[in-house]
Task: inverse folding
């Protein structure tokens, strides 16, 4: 059974860079769409993007200029970086595993709350 | 972006009720829709993928259906553990988008 666990600072200052990691234990790390999603307080889930087999990532166009995703298969670790953050980036950030024709997200991390505040 | 609109936004139900949640896409998404359940403070859990396929371990009282732009999630014989918020998600076109959620509460 695959387990995903996010880690990173819970507080980031405005204009700085948000950095999160997601450790993947159990299961294969290849042939899946490793996905980041966020959920601002009281709002709907927002898809940030995915990376497949350490290839070219696909990002939400609304975040493309600020986001970078990568996968380190040797460490079994995903990473997310979001630059120039504002209060609007305050959210619970999830990593998840996507698969199949409908790219459904069948395994999720527990989520990491990141607050952007000075 | 493809907009996903769920209805209702909230619903009160009793144990044993049949509950129907609908999700409408702003354009055709073929069969690229998934449904998730989220309980407070927890990550979403996949229930249904590709319109109607039941995720492993999910009770058979959950049923997905629909096509094109209109989809439904039906819960037959609602159980106490089903009180949660339910989201639809389209994976037809990037950016993948989610519905606003349907919160099921106890009547």
Result:
């Amino acid at each position: 059974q695959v387990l995903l666990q996010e880690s990173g600072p819970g507080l980031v200052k405005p204009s700085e860079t948000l950095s999160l990691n997601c450790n993947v234990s159990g299961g294969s790390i290849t042939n899946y769409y490793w996905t980041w999603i966020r959920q601002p307080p009281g709002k709907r889930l927002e898809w940030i993007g995915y990376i497949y087999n350490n290839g070219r990532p696909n990002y939400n166009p609304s975040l493309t200029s600020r986001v970078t995703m990568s996968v380190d298969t040797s460490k079994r670790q995903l990473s997310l970086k979001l630059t120039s953050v504002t209060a609007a980036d305050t959210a619970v950030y999830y990593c998840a595993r996507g698969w199949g024709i409908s790219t459904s997200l069948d395994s999720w991390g527990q989520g990491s709350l990141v607050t952007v505040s000075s | 972006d493809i907009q996903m609109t769920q209805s209702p936004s909230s619903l009160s139900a009793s144990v044993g009720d049949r509950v129907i949640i609908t999700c409408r896409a702003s354009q055709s998404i073929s069969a690229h829709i998934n449904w998730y359940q989220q309980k407070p403070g927890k990550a979403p859990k996949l229930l249904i993928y590709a319109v109607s396929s039941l995720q492993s371990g999910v009770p058979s009282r959950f049923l997905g259906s629909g096509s094109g732009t209109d989809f439904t999630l039906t819960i037959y014989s609602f159980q106490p553990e089903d009180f949660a918020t339910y989201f639809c998600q389209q994976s037809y076109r990037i950016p993948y988008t989610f519905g606003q959620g349907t919160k099921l509460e106890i009547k």
